[in-house]
Amino acid sequence: MKIYYDINDFEQVPHAVVTIGTFDGVHRGHQEILKNLVSQAKEIGGESVVVTFYPHPRQVLSHDAGIRFISTQEEKINHLKALGIDNLIIIKFTKEFASTSSEDFIKNYIVKNIAPAVLIIGYDHHFGSGRTGDFSMLYELGNQYNFKVEKIQEQDIENVAVSSTKIRHYLEIGDIKHANMLLGYEFSYTGKVVKGQQVGHKIGFPTANIEVAKEFQLIEKQGVYATFVDVGGKSYPAMTYIGKRPTMHDNRPQSIESNIINFDEDIYGKEIKVRFVDFVREDIRFDNTEALKNQIEKDKLNIINILN
User: Fold this and answer.
1) Closest among 224, 218, 206, 166 to 30, alpha carbons compared
2) Coil/strand/helix, residue 21
3) 3-state secondary structure (DSSP) of residue 116
4) What's the rounded Cα separation, in Å, for the pair 193 and 287?
5) Is the CB of residue 1 less than 8 Å from the CB of residue 87?
6) How far apart are CA 207 and CA 120, in angstroms?
7) CATH 3.40.50.620 fits 2-161, yes or no
8) From CA 117, how far away is CA 44, in angstroms rounded?
9) What residue ranges do the domains of the chain occupy?
10) 234-249: per-residue pLDDT in tens?
11) 5-33 per-position pLDDT tens digit
């Protein structure tokens, strides 16, 4: 996949099939659009082109300054690559760019630089200053600039409409199963293993403390999760904790740490990926470390059953 960080650098291809969006999480709704994109490009002997934005428009326009995202920029790129996208154009989103009218965006960015044969969008896609551009406008512009416009209808999974907003909500309340169902894969964090306070080691459950990307990624509800940890090309069952260790009374910041089951290798400094399967229990304070240890033993058995 070719990646362009400036649309003016894009090398035009014949019969470009294009889609535009932010694609946070690259969920099952996005995947339907992207698979259609790749399929149509192959059918007409062209190439697929995804146009996205960075930073996310909602960050720049400040209405959602505190918003957190399902995936980092790197993860999004990897998802798009895995789906077979030929070209990715990442437009730097600024307040100046946000003032571009809908028609000017299509004319001066998409038509001028890409010359699409087909433009595929989601059912609720809006674009341009004030998000005034919609399917009807695109259809008219397509007639004017000689490209075909197609709309992908809303995707329902088990009668739930797929959207990044819904997935973020499920993650925030700890409903990892529904989040994963809409994503079409397991939500994950990737990060480097760093030194922690060795609390887990002291009570017989050593953990890998994960320093996740600071790129506005959403952190799930505090508690204990059944997870898999990918490290060194292998996958291991694990129990992962997100929280502030209330039993220890140490006023430490929130941590993400995984006890990898039946694993004793030194992985400090290595990058690992934690894939979330299910929420097991809330983060609660115990009377003492012995009570905490007993609960973790129960958590471990429960998690082994879940992952099996």
Assistant:
1) 166
2) coil
3) strand
4) 29
5) yes
6) 45
7) yes
8) 9
9) 2-161, 188-307
10) 999 999 999 887 766 5
11) 999 999 999 999 999 999 999 999 999 99
Q: Which of 206, 216, 260 is nearest to 54 (CA)?
A: 216
Report how far residue 151's alpha carbon sits from residue 136's, in angstroms, rounded to the nearest whole number: 10
pLDDT value for 34: 96
**Helical H runs in 10-162?**
28-43, 57-60, 73-82, 95-98, 102-105, 112-114, 135-145
Cα angle 18-20-23, degrees, rounded to a multiple of 5? 125
- In this prediction, residue 144 carries a pLDDT of 94
**167 pLDDT more than 60:** yes
CB atoms within 10 A of CB 13: 18
Model pLDDT, residue 199:
59
| Alpha-carbon 147 to chain mean position | 30
Q: Which residue has the higher pLDDT, 244 or 74?
A: 74
Average pLDDT value for residue range 32-54: 96
pTM: 0.88
Whether residue 88 is predicted with pLDDT greater than 70 in this model: the reply is yes
Is CATH 2.40.30.30 correct for 188-307?
yes
Helix axes 176-183, 28-43, angle to 10 degrees: 10
Tell me the HSE value of 185 on the side-chain side, using a 13 A CA sphere.
Answer: 19
Reference 148, options 273, 61, 18; nearest CA is 18
225-259 b/e (C-beta count within 10 Å ≥ 16 → b): bbbbbbbeeeebbbbbbbbebebbeeeeeebbbbb
